Amino acid sequence: MSVKTIALVAHDHKKADIVVWAQKNKEALALFKVVATGTTGSLLLEKVGLDITRLQSGPLGGDQQIGALIAEQKLDALFFFWDPMNPVPHDPDVKALLRLCSVWNVPVACNVSSADMLVSSPLFLDPNYKPDLPNYDK
């Protein structure tokens, strides 16, 4: 069975939160292939030491790169610490990313509490767990 892939993304005002959270969960996260958008990936590499595949910055296409992974069923979970209090120029991309997670039944955590719940689930580390994929051919 191949290694599962997860994505870590954080808006500017949430980057410190995702770094602290990743430091606490480094052991679990190290079991996965981790992708992250630009600056978030750089911070996690520097401050946590995770092996990370860095994508473009979110506003420069990183959100779409993660969206493509979801649409191709190559992403197993998304940890997206987004900031609902500060609008961003790429807000439509953010909404599209969250929508794709719902469309393809990809687990998504949007804050520290939901990330804690997701990473502490026995299913998170179960290599045999596969969420049901919707059938849109009906």
UniProtKB/TrEMBL annotation:
Q: Does the keyword Lyase apply?
A: yes
**EC no.?**
4.2.3.3
Q: Which UniProt keywords apply?
A: Lyase
What GO MF terms are annotated?
methylglyoxal synthase activity
Matches recorded under SUPFAM superfamilies: Methylglyoxal synthase-like
A GO biological process of this protein is: methylglyoxal biosynthetic process
- Identify the residues that the record assigns to the MGS-like domain, covering every copy: 1-138
What does the protein in this record do? Catalyzes the formation of methylglyoxal from dihydroxyacetone phosphate.
The name this protein carries in UniProt is Methylglyoxal synthase
Species whose genome carries this gene? Glaciecola nitratireducens (strain JCM 12485 / KCTC 12276 / FR1064)
